[in-house]
Amino acid sequence: MDAPRLFGTLADVLDSWRADDPDAPALIGEHATTTAGELADLVDSQTRWLDAHTAPGARIGLHAPNSIDAVALLYAVPASGRRFVPLNTRLTDLEKADQLRRAGAALLIGDPVDGFDGPTLPIGELGDDPEVTAPDPHPTGATASTTPRYRPDPDAVAWIIFTSGSTGRPKGVEITHTSLAAAVATTAAARP
After folding, report:
1. pTM exceeds 0.85, yes or no
2. Cα separation of 74 and 167, whole Å?
């Protein structure tokens, strides 16, 4: 068995996947399959939107059912240097609002949560801002953009996940880019 490839961030994992096999199935849904290249392009689009509309280090909540956009946010929020705060949709609005407040969420993407005082953006509108233009993904010549994509510190916090609270109030656990990338490598090594 080959040793697992080590990555510093989730963005590195996705960039490598896109470079190695952009046509590989990344997400298989009931009606469509999304390739690694398509997922990476969506993540890039969401990352640009987050860069244009939120501050570095901002905590971004997600309250939405599973979808391609929601999966892309798993990558895009930390790739943009923000912290991802996913919510369990089965909690009450009171519990969700409490977690968003304690995490310091600056923006909620997805469905509104009663009691959350910050802005809420429907997930389908993320990236639809005509003022945010996409750079050429394959620049050539002297006019190509030289603006590098943000590269987060692998030891920085990428996600804040709340515990189940089985012995008390749920606690926000900070997970670094390195921890997430190691989990991906471990999972890949365990698969045949």
Report:
1. no
2. 28
